[in-house]
Design goal:
3 helices, three-stranded antiparallel sheet, alpha+beta
């Protein structure tokens, strides 16, 4: 309930993910690799302030449902 209230205050919501896992598009994979390699040199303060907007939340179990956090106005 606390997360739901916080998301409402910030105009965010959670929706069911259309696709599970990461993209297999070679261009996206290359971008993620570059991002990860740059992250190795980040200071602790920089790392702790990073917001990963594409994080997927999953509810465990045999049939998992993945969610994404998005802006209510659709401007992801």
């Amino acid at each position: 309930m606390a997360l739901h209230s916080a998301f409402d205050l910030l105009d965010y919501c959670r929706r069911t993910s259309k696709k599970k896992g990461y993209s297999e598009d070679p261009e996206v994979m290359a971008e993620r690799l570059v991002f990860a390699q740059e992250g190795i040199t980040w200071s602790r303060a920089r790392l702790e302030s990073q917001l990963f907007s594409d994080e997927v939340w999953a509810i465990g179990g045999a049939h998992t449902t993945s969610f994404v956090t998005v802006r209510k106005d659709g401007l992801d």
